[in-house]
Write a structure and sequence with these properties.
The complex is a heterodimer.
Chain A: H1 2-20, H2 44-61, H3 72-84, H4 90-101, H5 110-120, H6 122-137, H7 149-161, H8 166-175, H9 187-190, E1 193-194, E2 197-198, H10 200-212, H11 231-238, E3 244-247, E4 250-253, E5 259-262, E6 269-272, H12 289-297, H13 303-318, H14 340-350, H15 355-363, H16 379-387, E7 395-396, H17 399-409, H18 420-438, H19 453-461, H20 463-469, H21 476-483, H22 487-499, H23 505-516, H24 520-535, H25 538-541, E8 542-543
Antiparallel strand pairs in A: 1-2, 3-4, 5-6, 7-8
Chain B: H1 13-22, H2 34-38, E1 47-53, E2 77-79, E3 86-88, H3 92-97, E4 101-108, H4 114-123, H5 136-143, E5 154-157, E6 176-178, H6 194-213, H7 216-222, H8 224-235, H9 250-256, H10 260-274, E7 278-283, H11 292-316, E8 323-328, E9 332-333, E10 345-346, E11 348-356, E12 364-365, E13 381-382, H12 383-393, E14 401-403, E15 409-411
Parallel strand pairs in B: 1-7, 1-8, 4-12, 4-13, 5-6, 5-7
Antiparallel strand pairs in B: 2-3, 4-11, 8-11, 9-10, 14-15
Helix pairs in contact in B: 10-11
The chains are: A mainly alpha, B alpha/beta.
Chain lengths: 544, 422
């Protein structure tokens, strides 16, 4: 298989690029299919104002008054990275510019309408489903006989595509019955099968992390040293999975089963009945144990449930959990006074647990539209600025965002559902190795990390970089080098394609001088080298 | 017979140094302190090799067997060169070398979860929601870096989860990961000629300037520039040879075993020779909840030759006195055998090997209950003590306090010295 990949992959690079190209670099692209309004906007502005106010209060705790606004292209790039896992194509940039030039007949601002457009694109469902899947089933392959991760991710994408509310999705994931192939939601359960048995402890820890945003895992062996979780809380929750039965027809609930634990020290076995650690009134009386657990988790009064997903989506949008020093699934208990997460979470719940609503609100905040540049001079100043959200934080692109951006940069046209099959084929052939070599943090992908030497080597010398930037008549390097009207346009297009911005006057002068002396292949090489340098810049490989 | 033939490996770097110094050519040598690299015995600056057994290796099938008891299962024991100490018969080669190290059979920890246990056994601290502690290798490379190295200071082989990381010291102290050791390194060759490479790097300066101007702290914390510079230095370094094992004798390669672990151990020795301070060689597959005996047999067939050859090779090259070797995992396994012929997690009374680096050798510490009823071992050694002892042995004050990014003073290690080993 690997051999086949090696043989076929260069072929696919060429084929993919060939089919992606439709028009020359300077021709007009299709008119942007921008939605004219966003749905149900009546209280939208009010929520955004409330979030902005909460953020301002947070900033002021550290003495920061104002945010510096970012330019529209920077926000455009952020939106594409957060929602599609790639940077905008030149085609999209042109469409955005055209839309901006049209007379502002809409009440809603362009970036909000653009957010809507990205949310309506199936790339959003594909990309977000993988991100959410990581918190639900991790990245391991599991046991193939009973677990199909790919089915689970596809199913999740379908739910997002169909605008399924998050509480509904949660109920399916926790309580669905059937075969892992036909009822893909049950893969959440079967991902935790070890040997022939269900690993109740792992499943319980995962449930609490994913849906309540907290960590109960350590209470598996002892009372939690810092939080209120007791070992009995852990066992009581695990008992909700005690009747899960794995058979030839899939996952079912067998009422005759009881959950037993073996005491770690006495090694004696004892039976444990299901119990919840708080909110006993929320627990439905009827249903299977798993349905009751799901009912309890998604109960309207369970703030943890909606705070958890608000924090996760926040992390995907802003690159860092709202509480910047604490992992995304290690939230403190909900505070007595509602905080920013509650504002977001309550609005989310009031809008039918619609994940798009969460994204929409966050994307419209002052913070999302603020610059990552600041006056901070020392590391410490910058750390405080980030902690109090006085700046849009810079975060390293995850490997799939980076390869997405590199692939997109090799084409002037948008790589989307129209080039979907081939794009997927290309990704299939190249992504796995690239992501591994670049260093995938798996379920911990939202941890904030610095760059590594391995990554620098891969970007500088790796075969993917070489193949993507080598100029040919079909890829963006070739087209930008040969079809731009003059050097200035060639340089500007290179910058737009790779960095979603125009070059500064100093940059323009520098590269104009460089190109002026060259022609033919020498000039093409210089454009390839410009692409290489853009690819290897901090600006390219980090979200800002 | 001495030879000055440059094509044979009989020429040591010392020979080359002497020759080039004699000819006045020493300025041509890489900026490596060859004298330091050539030092042997206790004079040499110390390194650490951690052979990491991911998943939690069973003490009963490794260094603390209890044959003939209910908890012992079918595992037999063999004599070692330490008088009176027997280990599992799955490790015949290690039995011949183990007297160069020490056996601790009474480690205790409070972490029975893989991730938390790994954290504990790699850092010497329990996981803490507000701080990420650095691993042992990160502390060593931060406190006592080898300034002459052009390759990474801290290296991790194999594909286990949670490799050693820099924690609050910074990501630049994370281990450089190599999944498949012994086959050189990837992406080391620049794809264009030198003139174009210079143009590319010059461009990069121009592109970075405007962007980084008002993002200096973020740019610095990203390590983007540093990793790029380090990568460029590494690409042209002679020291890259340390990652290749082509010129090692076939018999030695066979002795280590053509496995990730075996090749990792061999490259680890080569890196120690090059002056790398901290190396982790990781092997997965020790989480034997089911079929523990078969599983451990398979594991031992890989681990035994790799580990035993590493000890022997270091000893023969007079590198063992300057190289601390630790062999351990995140916890041990239950004395009780479960219904699947497996053993579950057991963070108390588990075993490790520790020695070299001028520690004493041939010492056995601790004893576990052959009935498995008493969970507390005799002469317990809290995991924290391993870290205190190793840092002390490397000449790094374990009680030294650093200030974490949130302004909290934190000692490098928090245990006590394991006196019988000093």
């Amino acid at each position: 298989m690997k051999k086949l990949r090696i043989i076929l992959s260069p072929l696919f690079v060429v084929l993919t690029i060939a089919l992606m190209i439709g028009m020359t670099i300077r021709s007009d692209f299709d008119k942007a299919p921008l939605p004219s309004t966003i749905p149900a906007v009546t209280d939208f502005d009010e929520t955004v104002r409330a979030v902005n106010a909460a953020l301002a209060a947070r900033r002021q705790e550290a003495g920061y008054e104002h945010l510096t606004p970012a330019d529209d292209f920077t926000v455009l790039r952020r939106l594409s990275l957060s929602l599609h896992g790639t940077i905008p194509s030149l085609e999209e940039i042109r469409q955005f510019e055209q839309a901006a030039q049209r007379k502002p007949e809409q009440e809603t601002d362009l970036l909000t309408r653009w957010t809507e457009r990205l949310l309506n694109d199936s790339r959003f469902s594909d990309y977000f489903s993988e991100r959410l899947a990581r918190s639900l089933v991790g990245t391991d392959g599991g046991q193939f006989i009973v677990y199909r991760r790919d089915r689970f991710v596809d199913w999740l994408a379908e739910q997002l595509e169909n605008h399924r509310p998050w509480d509904d999705i949660t109920r399916d994931v926790i309580a669905d019955k059937g075969l892992w192939t036909g009822k893909p939601a049950v893969n959440f359960i079967t991902a935790g099968v070890a040997g022939d048995d269900l690993d109740h402890e792992e499943l319980t820890g995962k449930t609490v992390r994913a849906f309540l945003g907290q960590r109960i895992d350590c209470a598996q062996c002892h009372d939690h040293p810092f939080d209120d979780w007791k070992q009995s809380d852990f066992e009581g929750l695990a008992a909700f999975y005690g009747q899960v039965n794995l058979t030839l027809v899939g996952i079912e609930d067998k009422t005759s089963l009881e959950y037993e634990v073996e005491d770690r020290f006495t090694l004696e076995t004892r039976e444990v009945q299901p119990a919840v650690p708080f909110g006993p009134d929320w627990l439905p009386a009827e249903g299977t144990r798993r349905q009751r657990l799901a009912g309890w988790i998604t109960h309207d009064d369970n703030r943890r449930f909606r705070r958890a997903i608000a924090n996760r989506v926040w992390t995907l949008m802003f690159g860092s959990p709202y509480f910047t020093k604490i992992a995304v699934d290690d939230l403190p208990d909900p505070p007595a006074e509602p905080d920013l997460l509650d504002v977001l979470a309550d609005d989310f719940a009031a809008h039918d647990f619609d994940l798009r609503r969460l994204v929409r609100v966050m994307a419209a905040t002052d913070l999302f539209r603020s610059s990552s540049a600041s006056d901070a001079e020392t590391d410490q100043e910058y750390e405080i600025l980030k902690e109090y959200w006085g700046v849009f934080p810079m975060t390293r692109l995850r490997p799939e965002q980076l390869i997405g951006s590199m692939l997109q940069s090799s084409s002037v046209k948008t790589i989307d559902q129209n080039s979907h099959l081939l794009f997927r084929a290309m990704r299939f052939f190249r992504e796995q190795d690239f992501v591994r070599d670049y260093g995938d943090l798996g379920p911990d992908e939202l941890d904030q990390r610095s760059g590594t030497i391995t990554q620098a080597l891969l970007r500088m010398n790796g075969s993917l970089t070489r193949e993507l930037i080598e100029a040919n008549p079909l890829n963006s390097t070739g087209r930008v080098a040969n079809f731009s009207e003059n050097d200035r346009e060639c340089i500007e297009n290179s910058y737009l394609v790779c960095l979603t911005r125009r070059p500064s006057p100093a940059e323009m002068t520098y590269f104009e001088q460089q190109l002026a002396e060259l022609d033919g292949q020498q000039r093409t090489h210089a454009v390839v080298d410009l692409y290489w340098s853009l690819f290897n810049s901090l600006e390219f490989s980090w979200n800002h | 017979m001495e030879s000055l033939n440059f094509t044979t490996s009989a020429v040591t770097r010392r020979d080359v140094l002497q020759l080039s110094a004699g000819l006045g050519l020493s300025f041509l040598m890489p900026a490596l302190d060859l004298k330091a690299a050539e030092k042997r015995g206790t004079e040499r600056q110390k390194s650490v090799i951690v052979v990491w057994l991911a998943g939690g290796p069973s003490q009963l099938e490794t260094w603390d067997p209890h044959p003939g008891t209910e908890i012992g299962g079918p595992t037999k024991s063999i004599k070692t060169k330490i008088s009176g100490a027997e280990i599992a018969s799955l490790f015949p080669q290690t039995a011949e070398q183990i007297h160069h190290l020490n056996i601790i059979r009474s480690l205790t920890s409070k972490e029975g979860d893989h991730e938390r246990g790994t954290y504990m056994l790699k850092t010497g601290y329990r996981p803490d929601p507000t701080t990420i502690h650095p691993s042992l290798g990160a502390i060593i490379t931060q406190q006592a870096p080898n300034k002459n190295l052009e390759i990474p200071q801290h290296i991790s082989f194999g594909d286990g989860s949670w490799p050693a990381r820099g924690g609050y010291l910074g990501d630049q102290y994370d281990a450089f990961r190599i999944y498949d050791p012994g086959n050189g390194l990837h992406n080391m060759e620049m794809p264009v000629g030198d003139d174009r490479q210079q143009r590319r790097l010059g461009n990069l300066e121009v592109i970075s300037k405007a962007f980084e101007a008002r993002r200096r702290p973020a740019a610095k914390l990203s390590l983007h520039r540093k990793t790029l510079d380090d990568a460029l230095t590494m690409m042209s370094s002679e020291q890259l040879q340390a990652f290749k094992i082509d010129d090692e004798p076939q018999a030695l390669k066979d002795a280590y075993g053509d496995t990730k672990l075996g090749r990792g151990c061999l490259v680890a020795r080569r890196l120690v020779e090059s002056g790398v301070r901290a190396i982790e060689v990781s092997m997965t597959g020790f989480d034997t909840h089911a079929n523990n005996y078969e599983g451990m047999q398979t594991q031992a067939e890989i681990l035994d030759p790799g580990l035993a050859t590493l000890i022997r090779d270091l000893k023969e090259r007079d590198l063992l006195d300057s190289t601390v070797v630790m062999c351990l995992g995140e916890f041990g396994r239950t004395p009780k055998i479960n219904g699947l012929d497996g053993r579950d997690h057991w963070p108390t009374g588990f075993s490790c090997l520790l020695g070299g680096g001028s520690l004493k050798s041939g010492v056995v510490i601790g004893e576990t209950d052959p009935t498995g009823e008493k969970k507390d071992p005799q002469d317990p050694v809290p995991v924290e003590n391993l870290f205190t002892t190793v840092l002390h042995q490397l000449g790094i004050d374990p009680q030294k306090e650093l200030i974490t990014p949130i302004g909290r003073p934190m000692a490098l290690a928090q245990g006590e010295l394991i006196e019988p080993l000093l």
